[in-house]
Amino acid sequence: MGRLAEAGIEPSVGNVGDSYGNALAETINGLYKTELIHRQGSWCNMQDLEMTTLGWVDWFNNSRLLWPIGNIPPAEAEESFYAQRDVLDMVA
Q1: Are residues 38 and 30 in contact, defined by beta-carbon separation less than 8 angstroms?
Q2: pLDDT surpasses 60 at 17
Q3: 20, 13 in Cβ contact below 8 A?
Q4: Residue 57 CB: number of other CB atoms within 10 A?
Q5: pTM of the predicted model, to two decimals?
Q6: C-alpha closest to that of 28 among 51, 6, 56, 55
């Protein structure tokens, strides 16, 4: 929540109880279910599912190329954003 406030971003676009509050979380859940759970099928045990989930989350945050931000991974875009902000802070 602190990083959102630093960037001037509200944590929710809606009021408590409306359909917009969990939109981002629901989108991620839908992607997770579509790309991992439904495509890769069943696992031998819970540990297999947990390890596969960790791999998917790592890919989603650190390797997946996202077109709207220049075909770079989200983690790289975030790192670049904060590096530029730090440079601007030093100049000011």
Answers
A1: no
A2: no
A3: yes
A4: 13
A5: 0.64
A6: 56
- Token pair recorded at residue 53: 């989930």
pLDDT digits (tens, 9 = 90+) for 18-40: 555 577 778 888 899 898 888 88
Across the strands, what pairs with 66? Answer: 72
The CA distance from 37 to 30, in Å, is 10
Name which of 65, 63, 43 is nearest 53 in CA terms.
43
Q: By three-state DSSP, how is residue 24 classified?
A: helix
Structure token pair of residue 26: 């629901």
pLDDT at 12 over 80: no
- Average pLDDT of span 2-16: 70
Structure-token pair, residue 17? 């109880």
Q: Which residues contact 49 (CB under 8 A, 6 or more apart)?
A: 43
